[in-house]
Amino acid sequence: MKVAILAPVAWRSPPRHYGPWEQMASNVAEGLVALGVDVTLFATADSATAGTLAAVVAQGYEEDRTQDAKVLECLHISHLMERAGEFDVIHNHFDFLPLTYSRLIPTPMVTTIHGFSSARILPVYEKYAATTAYVSISHADRSPRLPYVATVYNGLRLPDFPFTAQPDDYLLFFGRIHPDKGTAEAIQIARQSHKRLLIAGIVQDAAYFRERVEPLLSEDVVFLGPAGPAQRQQLLGQALALLHPIGFDEPFGLSVAEAQLCGTPVIAFARGAMPELIQSGRTGFLVDTVGQAVEAVQQVGQLSRGACREWAAANFSQQKMAADYLAVYQRIVRH
Amino acid sequence: MKVAILAPVAWRSPPRHYGPWEQMASNVAEGLVALGVDVTLFATADSATAGTLAAVVAQGYEEDRTQDAKVLECLHISHLMERAGEFDVIHNHFDFLPLTYSRLIPTPMVTTIHGFSSARILPVYEKYAATTAYVSISHADRSPRLPYVATVYNGLRLPDFPFTAQPDDYLLFFGRIHPDKGTAEAIQIARQSHKRLLIAGIVQDAAYFRERVEPLLSEDVVFLGPAGPAQRQQLLGQALALLHPIGFDEPFGLSVAEAQLCGTPVIAFARGAMPELIQSGRTGFLVDTVGQAVEAVQQVGQLSRGACREWAAANFSQQKMAADYLAVYQRIVRH
What we know:
Two copies of one chain form a homodimer. The first copy, chain A, is α/β, with parallel strands linked by helices. The first copy, chain A, has eleven helices and 13 strands.
């Protein structure tokens, strides 16, 4: 089977630092190559793949801000569309714009909806619901207004998240500093548990950081700033537990899967995709309040870190994701 | 011949107030209908045409700012592209994005380049140079990097600009208040000519207005603010001359054509499309300096207002524009 993977061109694929959609497009492409699939990755020219790279955009528009994003986007998308006849299936990771070319080409298209930036983009998905196959990244993230052919969870590269059998004694908050992610609640949980808390992430909401986080920093509540790949694996792996007391219905939650891959259980508020990502009582705890989270911290040391690793490796690996997508392609192409 | 006209969807077609690209798309469509052509105008649903209206966008994104412009654009463009097989030719007034669908459809496309918002959009035009026919709105506005099949001047509705044989004694500045349009130079010319100056237009550059225009306002230099259609025809028609001392290479200059249609000669700096729009010494004067413009004001009363009208009606009418475009379509379709 000849597969074209359409990555966004905000960043290169895989991204050097940030770029979750590019990361997943890359993980799918490399996972399919490992399965023996003939993969062409449409991405920026500075991207890397074990398959074939197809590129007309030299560098991502977020990496060279002098460029016109709309120009790059439409040149990149049309480059693939004009070559559509070469492929058995096109797998779109590039939001809604590619959909609007899909009825003009002979090749079936699978679109992973990585997120809805706004309800205003739904009409495009609705228009193309009959002619493209939508994949959700969790059951929780499905729009009731759209049909889906499958849910395929985000898959991670196992070597990036090695198992750590023996943790340190700290709790970890890992993510954007923003009310959505519950940084302030994580501090409450840690203080009431008399545990050390490490906080890693970019400050997305400066007022929230200033008012709700910064005044509570101490020897036991430490803000580390953003963490790169090497520090990330160490922080995640050596934590007693990841605290994830989110304030919104999170569509997935990469750090939740990453922590478990390292063997670290997760204590999360039971919203969004959390019930799909965590086996409560086995690989972490789903709770509704800070008080319940404090109780969970007392029990978290009894969970098997090996079970966390096994669960995450079975469900959130690059290999599993690639195999699931290959099954989707086979269903689509057969039609 | 079945023609699809693709208008932008920032405003309705024709626009209620502002919207020059929508105005020209509408003028082409209505002019073609008058020539007996089967025209479908792809525009906002609140648009008006004597042909067939095709619309999926209820209202322009500039008229209802709660909408996502990119969503409206791609739904609007793909609506036409998916119906491309119904038409002999598609005439694109919608900038570069529609070009990127053009190789996926069987119908030839003519694209009027109404302006380059930035040099960064040129790569899209270059990519599609071999497969779409570009029309410039003046010889002066041509990019040396692109091939063109024709220049077709903007065409105006003659009833909107009635001839005025006997003018008043004022000079007129008509356009955006901006250094590009030379408001300050127009004031100098009027003062040195001891003539009254009326200034009509939106303030686009507030600092320029505050520093270079406002301090010079007086009983003889009057700022009127923006003028609607009714006031516009009166202001243009009753002026002794329109002053157009531009500071940039203007691609066309609608007010220059409009003034002449009303019988009013134009004194302009000889830049951009001005040598194409004005017959110097007959329908106005092309000059290079404020001093030369002052000399021109002394002579402008001797020009025949009838000659201005005739020249503009022959070259810048809706009828002429529609006939010119029909000839372009016939050349393209025959290929």
